[in-house]
Specification:
Layout (H helix, E strand, L loop, with lengths): L1 H30 L12 E7 L17 E4 L1 H4 L12 E6 L5 E10 L8 E3 L1 H8 L5 E10 L5
Parallel strand pairs: 1-5, 2-4
Antiparallel strand pairs: 1-6, 2-5, 3-4, 3-6
Length: about 150
Amino acid sequence: MKGIFTTFVFVCTGSIGAYSAAVSEAAEATSLMPTGGSDSAGNFQGDANIDNLSGDQCNVAITDSGYYVGLSEEEFVDPTTKQTKCNACISIVNPANGNKAITAKVVGISQGGTQKDIFLNQAALTELAGKNIDYIYDISWTYVDCPKA
């Protein structure tokens, strides 16, 4: 019985050591990524939700056919400059719809979600999804230059 117990303790200790090393490596790799849910190129991964955006926070007149986005409060204000992201543009890609991409204008803050989630008006979400829905999982987005009008 003593031999079985010794073997069991050795196997468990060996497994814990391997687990500890794996956790340590994962923590080290994670610490190298920038904060805010983006990779080193500034590409964010998150979800897109429907929101009844008003545009009041950025003084933007919203049209039925335009594409508009609301950001989380944490993402809306630049922590360094304290400036808002009003009127910035983001490119949004939906891999579930053949990498369909749209560009939307930031019009304010939307509540809910995480820093990397975005909130779109109905026209933008429908175009991105290819159908009339309220939510898209696992989109990617990044800041881009706004298209010339």
